[in-house]
Specification:
Layout: H1 2-36, H2 53-60, E1 66-71, H3 76-91, E2 95-100, H4 106-111, E3 119-124, E4 127-131, H5 136-147, E5 152-157, H6 174-182, E6 185-190, H7 192-195, E7 202-208, H8 216-227, E8 231-235, H9 245-250, E9 253-255, E10 259-261, E11 276-277, E12 279-280, E13 293-294, E14 301-303, E15 311-318, E16 324-326, H10 329-333, E17 345-346, E18 350-358, H11 359-365, E19 378-384, H12 400-411, H13 434-466
Parallel strand pairs: 1-2, 5-6, 5-7, 7-8, 8-19
Antiparallel strand pairs: 1-3, 3-4, 9-14, 10-16, 11-13, 12-15, 15-18, 16-17, 18-19
Helix pairs in contact: 2-5
């Protein structure tokens, strides 16, 4: 009898072990299939965990490895970013991602020039794109920029003493050029006196601190470029308007012969002739901009009272109220400058502004607009009251370079190549009828407990009968 019991015990034991092995093998096989061929279901009504069709089309075109590096601390924002990165990696095997804690791996953060938490860097196709706000829209646009082959052209006007993009000295713009080229732009000089017209392939034209006046023909060429949806950046130092004063006034800019005095600069160890800017306007260029910018020897920029209604004028960067625009040049040279409420311009002082020009509306207002040809939609004109802030000396100072690059990106329409509407996350209440409520109660509170008890009694009886 004892031998029979041992044999029976061995048989039951071997069956149990075999069952465990078989179940483990099945689970392992299923896990391997899921790992090789993962499947996801988004059961939310708004499909908040599914990429838009626009993003899917972009992801499907990727045929080379792209790595996303997220620089996050261990917090809730990292979890949200991981869900988003996983959505991209799920659609295309060429996309991978990795998280780096900037505090634990400072050498990697320094390599990628990371300044804030929540930044992501996408590398691929021999280039890299940095995004400071992780969202489906920003990632998809970064992927588009990486995969695009053509380069937009940024022209720098020359021939009037402007900062040279070939100059590696302290006043040169070679850093500007290299930074733009890293962002996949083609950067070239423009001698407008020879060309007569701004080239058709110009995405942005930059006039960087001319020391001499432009010829009337050159000013007219710039105006014609603006009329055909041009994007122009004008950077004018104090006491020099380069012959552009009237053109700028046409689009709502008023220039004064002053220089900005800011005593706050001395707190940071700088000259009071280098105003510190921490206040930024509500605009895509300065959205989420968190850095200070410094403008050595800047002039004020004001909105003209005669601004046409076809122009939307926005102040992008302003000093504190403690600053003012000094108009008495003689007192300034004698180092005796002080605020005169009768003559000087009180702070806060605008040092950077942008005008969005509604060309379609402007054309419709003209009497001779009988042409059936489609009118250009809009143009942009950005004015900086200083050109030295982007020179090799100051480009890397705090947020100076970022502000300049943000401006070019916006004007070149690089800031958002695809706009993705945010899905509304609406909760939907579950409303049950009285019969449904009774049925739910019976199943959860009566039937399920009874089934568990009956099953337990049955197992007990079977095991007892086998003894």
């Amino acid at each position: 009898m004892a031998e029979y019991s041992k044999k029976r015990l061995w048989i039951h034991g071997s069956h149990t072990v075999l069952s465990i092995i078989i179940v483990t093998a099945i689970l392992g096989f299923v896990g391997l299939i899921v790992h090789r061929h993962p499947v996801r279901w988004d059961l939310t009504k708004s499909k908040s965990h599914t990429l838009s069709e626009q993003s899917k089309k972009v992801v499907n075109t990727i045929n080379q490895p792209i790595k996303i590096m997220g620089f996050f601390a261990d917090d809730n924002s990292k979890s949200k970013a991981q869900d988003l990165f996983e959505s991209y990696a799920y659609l295309n095997k060429f996309i991978s991602y990795e998280f780096v804690d900037p505090d634990r791996r400072p050498e990697i953060a320094k390599k990628y020039e990371i300044k804030t938490y929540g930044t992501a860097v996408l590398e691929g196709y021999g280039r890299k794109e940095t995004i400071t706000s992780v969202s489906e829209e920003s990632i998809t646009n970064a992927l588009l920029k990486l995969t695009r082959t053509e380069k937009k052209k940024i022209y720098f006007l020359t021939g009037h003493g402007e900062h040279s993009i070939e100059d590696f000295g302290k006043d040169g713009y070679s850093t500007v050029k290299s930074s733009l080229e890293k962002d996949n732009y083609a950067v070239e000089k423009l001698v407008l006196a020879e060309k007569k017209e701004v080239p058709e392939d110009a995405s942005v034209v930059v006039v960087a601190g001319p020391k001499k006046n432009l010829l009337p023909e050159e000013v007219q060429a710039l105006e014609r470029y603006i009329k055909r949806s041009g994007r122009v950046v004008v950077m004018l130092d104090p006491y020099q308007d380069a012959g552009l004063k009237e053109l700028l006034k046409t689009y709502g800019f008023e220039l004064s012969d002053d220089i900005v005095i800011d005593k706050l600069s001395q707190v940071f160890g700088g000259s009071y002739l280098m105003p510190v800017v921490t206040q930024y306007g509500i605009h895509s260029i300065t959205s989420d901009f968190k850095f200070m910018t410094f403008f050595p020897e800047a002039r004020s920029i004001r909105e003209s009272q005669q601004k046409p209604d076809t122009v939307t004028w926005t102040a992008l960067a302003q000093t504190s109220e403690a600053a003012w625009g000094e108009t008495n040049r003689k007192m300034l040279e004698q180092n005796k400058a002080s605020f005169d409420e009768k003559e000087d311009i009180p702070g806060p002082i605008t040092v950077v502004a942008i005008a969005e020009i509604n060309l379609k509306k402007e054309t419709e207002q003209k009497e001779d607009s009988s042409s059936s040809a489609p009118a250009p939609s809009k143009a942009f004109l950005t004015v900086f009251g200083d050109s030295d802030f982007a020179s090799n000396t100051y480009f890397g100072l705090s947020g100076n370079g970022d502000l300049f690059l943000n401006t070019v990106h916006y004007l070149a329409e690089e800031q958002t190549l695809i706009t993705i509407d945010r899905r509304a996350k609406e909760g939907e209440p579950l409303v049950l009828t009285m019969s449904q409520m009774r049925l739910t109660f019976l199943i959860s509170m009566v039937l399920m407990p009874v089934l568990v008890i009956v099953s337990a009694v049955y197992v007990y009886m079977v095991r007892r009968a086998q003894r």
